Amino acid sequence: MFKTKLNYLTISCVCLTFCLIQLAQSGVVKSPVISEDVKEDFEREARLETEEFLNAIFTAQIDFFNKLKQSLKPDTKRYKDIEVFVQRLEQAKEEKELEKKDVMYWETFQQFNKSPLLLNDAAETGMTDEAYQKALTDNGFKELLKNFFADVAVYFWKMAKASGKVVETTMDEYLEQMQSSKKLF
Question: Is Signal there in the keyword field (predicted)?
Fold first, then answer.
């Protein structure tokens, strides 16, 4: 996944930004490396981007599974499992607190990780393998995956840009301080 130099740079910028924030918060660095304003702006932007990213994923999965559910008989186990899955995703999407939203999604993912919603079990779906595969395809499974990977890429790019902005602003502030005090190092 991270095979290009740009991907390595993106991950490095994000990690550096988080490390600088953690060092400043933990008191390891005596004078703040990152100003409070820059830190608050980054945290606000990161929270907003993360919330938008999660909600986009929730919406896409809700739409897909609601379509898939229509291909199933209402009395099947898979139909009922999908109803519960969609209901939990809708609750997570409606949650305003980001940490709770993240936990709700993770718990839902973990629970349904054991239930193969995308794999056919004739006893759960009432369908043959071919019929279930067709239902997945007809209801947009390939588009769901393609859009998911695109959303992940966009999210990482936005986070890398925000991290780069923090590094740039922090370096500018540091260089200004150095210039004003005429100390080189």
Answer: yes
Q: How many domains, in total, are found in the chain?
A: 2
Determine, yes or no, domain membership for 148.
yes
User: pTM, whole model, 2 decimals?
Assistant: 0.74
Which domain, by its residues, includes 83? 72-127
**d(C-alpha 32, C-alpha 19), whole Å:** 13
The answer to the question of residue 78 being in a domain is yes
pLDDT, tens digit, 9 for 90 and up, residues 36-74? 888 888 889 989 999 999 999 999 999 999 999 999 999
Supply 66's token pair: 């609601």
Residues 88 and 118 in one domain: yes
159-162-164-169 Cα dihedral, nearest 10 degrees: -160
Task: Examine the domain organization and report whether 109 and 156 are in the same domain.
Answer: no
